[in-house]
Specification:
It contains no helices and 11 strands. It is globular. It is mainly beta and about 130 residues long.
Length: about 130
């Protein structure tokens, strides 16, 4: 079992930056894939990006590529999402998620993830 807790959400102006964190606990992370998703009311959860915990390799959705960066701190068991050049369309609840040991880095299907945080709201105001 992996427990995930997000933090760092808030309100930011268009063009601004925000950094989200996801604290993992429980099962030791090895070859897990950890991802970020976002969701707005009435829409399905949207893949943002993911990182392979063991190697630090990343994969991003085209909609945020070049603006968002995922990283992880193995010592602190924390994954981060650095969001720059934010747009109003980035407004959503952001979730971190983890697969069981293994999984595909490029799989954007939320059903492929087994563990989820509670979500943190990000609002980009114009």
């Amino acid at each position: 079992q992996v427990q995930l807790v997000e933090s760092g959400g808030g309100t930011v102006q268009v063009g601004g930056s925000l950094r989200l964190s996801c604290q993992a606990s429980g099962e030791t992370l090895g070859h897990h894939v950890m991802g970020w998703f976002r969701q707005t009311p009435g829409k399905e959860r949207e893949f943002v990006g993911a990182i392979r915990w063991s190697f630090g390799t990343t994969h991003y959705a085209d909609t945020i590529k070049g603006r968002f960066t995922i990283s992880r701190d193995i010592a602190k068991n924390t994954m981060s999402l650095q969001m720059d050049s934010l747009k109003p369309d980035d407004t959503a609840v952001y979730y971190c998620a983890a697969t069981t040991n293994g999984g595909s880095l490029t799989d954007a299907n939320s059903r492929s993830y087994d563990y989820w945080g509670q979500g943190t709201q990000v609002t980009v105001s114009s």
